[in-house]
Amino acid sequence: MIEFSLPEDVASVKLSIYNALGEKVAELVNTSLTAGKYQYQWNARDVATGMYIYELRTDNFVEVKKMLLVR
Questions:
Q1: Are 16 and 54 within 8 A, CB to CB?
Q2: Spatial distance between the Cα atoms of 37 and 32, rounded to a whole number of angstroms
C-alpha cells in the first residue's frame, strides 16, 4: 500500500513504480487530485520478487522511495 497526502489541489500527479533497472513497471496515478489523503495498492502479480522504487511527482514536488516485494 502506498500512502501520501496532498496539502492542496494539484493539477498533475503521477505515481510510478520502477524496477531495480530503472524500467517503469506500473503507473498507478496520472491525473489531477484534490487536497487530501490517498492510498493506492499496487497489483504486483506480474513482476518478480525484489526491490522496487516508487516515484510520486506533482507540479512542484518529487518523492522517491524504495520498497521490497516479498512473496
A1: yes
A2: 14
| Residue 58 contacts residue 10 (beta carbons within 8 Å) | yes
Question: Considering only the top CATH level, what class is 2-69?
Answer: mainly beta
Q: What is the pLDDT of residues 13-65, one digit of tens each?
A: 999 999 999 999 999 999 999 999 999 999 999 999 999 999 999 999 999 99
Tell me the whole-structure pTM to 2 decimals. Answer: 0.89
Distance CA 1, CA 60 (A): 23
> Are 15 and 1 within 8 A, CB to CB?
no
**Amino acid letter, 54:** Y
For residue 23, which amino acid is it? Answer: E
